[in-house]
Amino acid sequence: ETKAPSNFIRQIIDRDLAEGKNDGQVVTRFPPEPNGYLHIGHAKSICLNFGVAESYNGSCNLRFDDTNPEKEEDEYIQSIKQDVQWLGFTWNGQEKFASDYFDRLYELAVELIHKGLAYVDSLSPEQIAEYRGNFTTPGKPSPYRERSVEENLALFEQMRSGEMDEGAAVLRAKIDMQSANLNLRDPILYRIRKKVHHQTGDKWVIYPMYDFTHPLSDALEGITHSLCTLEFEDHRPFYDWVIEHTSVPASPRQYEFARLNLNYTVTSKRKLKQLVDEGHVEGWNDPRMPTISGLRRRGYTPASLRTFCESVGVSRADSVVDMGMLEAAIRDDLNQHAPRAMCVLNPLKVVIENWEGGKEESLTAPVHPQNETMGTRQVPMTREIYIDREDFREEANKKFKRLVLGDRVRLRYGYVVRATDVVRDDSGEIVEVRCSYDPDTLGKNPENADDQGKLRGVIHWVSASKGEPCEVRLYDRLFTAANPNKTEEGQTFLSHINPDSLSVLDGCWVEPGLRGVLAETRYQFEREGYFCVDQSSSADKLVFNQTVGLRESWPK
Ligand code: ATP
Ligand code: MG
Ligand code: MG
User: Fold this and answer.
1) pLDDT tens-digit profile of 2-28?
2) Where is this motif: 'HIGH' region (predicted)?
């Protein structure tokens, strides 16, 4: 295994370990909110958190950040676990829910009230926002800020017991209404939400805010390095304040890194959910989605996503990564590891006139031309075969390295054939090419001295009588704009959706060895690109998703 490249987070950990901090322990966590499926940005955070834990013999908890009872669903929890495991990481039983700590969080809030560091505010949400001020105006104190400890305890108990309506009051930290950091202007710790929670049921009608829950969950789990994205930088002073003023057993530290952004797509769960809900895609795992499950269905391997995340690196500089880099990662992986197969996407029938009617020959081909250890495969040759329409022309100059009327090509792994005639339908379209084959050309070049000219090239093909029909789905970018989030007035990111991101080719033919292959099996279709068996594929109907082309070919 190659050692992960260093980054500023690893340097901080190295320094902490050298100074003997945290008893030499490294404990991280990956804390998704279960309100959607994970996307490629989350993969970066997963690789960082689990990767750091792995390298330092530490551990990484999977923690569901489920403080918001309204948006969270069990389907998301299951998908998140599946995606993390699929990426190749394990949390060693350390599966946590922020809601596991609701009792403890409540006690710690009461502790803050006792210390005179929290109060119940009865201002309306609008008034609270107004009193808080903004970057240019200082905040002003709520008239309820100086309530006594006893009064605050009694009111907080009323909030908890359900005696108060939603919005009637909140619990706030008492910090500094003049602070230049808006997050320190008496942030809200608890609000009333009369909602059933998927883990705690109807036990609670008050729910802790994310900014209060997160540092405490970290501390209660003994997290040493709490890694999050840069938008939380301004929240760090409050994170530290919470740790400092509550009696928790550990002092985790928060470090921020830049989010991963990819061009030609969106990485926001809210936007991805909108694509799903409004039917712009088939679901969260549509192969065009930048979700982990979508990339998986598209044909990406866990290794390719880990390699990609590693090559993107971890820094504090915001940037947009080119989609081509993600594609390069899977192309490299599949080029090395994917078995080869022949699939004809736009079939044109070829009849070999000097091949006996019922004769079938089994040709031997390597599974991977550069890797003998992957063995060989058998490909049936028959009188009628399919080639790709693009691989035949009646006339062409010498640059066309495919079949031309009167000229010869080699059928990959098979014989040399010469095109002798064409058959047309009523509209004049060519529906068949007539050929002759040279029986003495299997694995060797034609020897006859009177043969004019060289072979034009080598083309792929599939036996018409023995081949397997299949459907192939080709994909283009889901958005036509490099930055779909950038919109003119009256537009949304949906204005940039590419209407032609999916083309379904029915009536393709693949070599018969692929009959019945399982979903997620990946191939290089020779001369066409990389493809993966779709989950909808069955013994009756094979369906393939195009993963990526053979070469970088975009923009077209
Ligand atoms: P979204 O904006 O898509 O809803 P989020 O940050 O709200 O993302 P969470 O479920 O809270 O989603 O994310 C879990 C973890 O993954 C957090 O630590 C978050 O910082 C990290 N994360 C989310 N998006 C990215 C990204 N694009 N790049 C790197 N890390 C990310
Ligand atoms: Mg979040
Ligand atoms: Mg979010």
Assistant:
1) 467 899 999 999 999 999 999 999 999
2) 32-42
Q: Are residues 283 and 397 in the same domain?
A: no
pTM for the whole structure: 0.95
Catalytic residue status for 551: no
Atom 14 (ligand 1): residue with closest C-alpha? 32
Query: What pLDDT, on a 0 to 100 scale, did the predictor assign at position 73?
Result: 83
Helix (H, G, I), strand (E, B) or coil at 498: coil
Q: How far is the CA of 32 from the centre of ligand 1 (A)?
A: 7
- Clarify whether residues 118 and 45 are in a common domain: yes
- 553 lies in a domain? no
Domain coverage including residue 494:
269-337+470-548
CATH of the domain at 120: 3.40.50.620
The yes-or-no verdict on residue 85 having pLDDT over 50 is yes
Q: Are residues 210 and 314 in the same domain?
A: no
The conformational region for residue 379 under phi > 0 = left, psi -120 to 50 = alpha, else beta, is: beta
Which one is catalytic: 71, 81, 145, 259?
259
Nearest residue by C-alpha to atom 18 in ligand 1: 228
Q: Are residues 233 and 309 in the same domain?
A: no
Q: Is 210 annotated as a binding residue?
A: yes
Given 431, 466, 501, the domain boundary residue is 466
395 tagged catalytic = no
| Dihedral in degrees, nearest 10, Cα atoms 110, 114, 115, 116 | 100
On whether residue 99 sits in a domain, the answer given is yes
Cα gap 187→209, rounded to integer Å: 9
Token output for 452: 């004019």
Residues 6+ apart with CB under 8 A from 53: 26, 27, 28, 59, 60
> For every residue of 50-69, which 3-state class applies, written as one string?
HHHHHHCCCEEEEEECCCCC
Q: Is 12 helix (H, G, I), strand (E, B) or coil?
A: helix
**CATH code for position 392:** 2.40.240.10
To the query of whether residue 466 is one of the catalytic residues in this protein, the response is no
Residue whose pair of structure tokens reads 């928060």 in the numeric block: 254
Would residue 556 count as lying in a domain? no
Distance 41 CA to ligand 1 centre (A): 7
Asked whether the beta carbons of 472 and 463 are under 8 A apart, the reply is no
255 annotated to bind ligand: no
Q: Is residue 555 part of a domain?
A: no
ipTM: 0.96
The residue behind tokens 């942030």 is 187
Marked catalytic residue, from 33, 130, 361, 520: 33
435, amino acid identity = C
Q: Which residues line ligand 1 (CB under 6 A)?
A: 31-33, 41-42, 44-45, 65, 228-229, 259-260, 267-269
Q: How many domains does the chain have?
A: 3
Q: Examine the domain organization and report whether 405 and 483 are in the same domain.
A: no
